[in-house]
Amino acid sequence: MSFSLSSGVLVTIIGEAVLQDQLIHLLTKLGVSGYTIIPAQGSGSHGRRMGDMAGYNTNIEIKTIVAATTSDQLLLDLGPLQANHALIAFRQSVDGLFD
Amino acid sequence: MSFSLSSGVLVTIIGEAVLQDQLIHLLTKLGVSGYTIIPAQGSGSHGRRMGDMAGYNTNIEIKTIVAATTSDQLLLDLGPLQANHALIAFRQSVDGLFD
Amino acid sequence: MSFSLSSGVLVTIIGEAVLQDQLIHLLTKLGVSGYTIIPAQGSGSHGRRMGDMAGYNTNIEIKTIVAATTSDQLLLDLGPLQANHALIAFRQSVDGLFD
């Protein structure tokens, strides 16, 4: 089977829904124009920050596939948001059909 | 700890909601009977194709775990859909509890 | 670029929505306090278990990032649920911003 797949880094950001515009702005600043948003519920904590919030929360999950260097910059830029907001982000290498 | 886990390839397809029946038909044709569908919003572009669409869009995310060879065939079969539709697909190796 | 990322194991559990309380109880028992829940639809089968269910179903997807040893225990504890419920679970290594 001969066909060519792209390689990239899937970055998943899960955070409070109020962060949506800020996160999209950050992605746009980095030249990331494609992303997918899914509404989510979060509970408990991913560490103390999320533990500060009681019960169920309205979160969003944003996924995007970017180059490795862009994923570095994205995670670096997301870090300061954790000071005041419940937010996690993680990344994984993927291959497939995308630009 | 002694217990046995399965290994497989998680394929995630994100595309326009109107593709849902076509994607399920494709999965069925490949003998894939198990999948999960989550409604999603997409914006901007994963490349020019998605860039043709304005603003927010109604998308779906379909996930399935298949054998490596099936994931090859699935990505190969999805390719032509990108000519006329906003669609990306990517895969990752996973292990866990599944058949 | 110098910044420090955490490493962990992303565990994704997809199962019948009726399992939600039981799954959260299991996570809590293992000391996992942070997780994300997304409503999902499942269809067909991930093996015979899900094949027993007709048509579309109301499922949930629960995601959490844990230590590797915790992911072992979690998958071990989830196994028995598969006897009576449609449930799959899989894991992947990730790095990023989380505790």
List keywords for this structure.
3 helices, 4 strands, alpha+beta, homotrimer, Alpha-Beta Plaits, 99 residues
What does this protein look like?
- Chain A is globular, with a radius of gyration of 15 Å.
- In chain A, strands 2-3-1-4 form a four-stranded antiparallel beta sheet.
- About 10% of the residues of chain A have low confidence.
- By secondary structure, the first copy, chain A, is of the alpha+beta class.
- Chain A has one domain: Alpha-Beta Plaits.
- Chain A is 25% helix and 43% strand.
- The longest helix of chain A has 11 residues.
- Chains in contact: A-B, A-C, B-C.
- Chains A and B meet through strand 2 and strand 4 of A and strand 2, helix 2, helix 3 and strand 4 of B.
- Strand 2 of chain A pairs antiparallel with strand 2 of chain B.
- Chains A, B, C: Pfam families: P-II (PF00543).
- Chains A, B, C: This is P-II family nitrogen regulator.
- Chains A, B, C: It comes from Floridaenema fluviatile BLCC-F154.
- Chains A, B, C: InterPro entries: N-reg_PII, N-reg_PII-like_a/b, N-reg_PII/ATP_PRibTrfase_C.
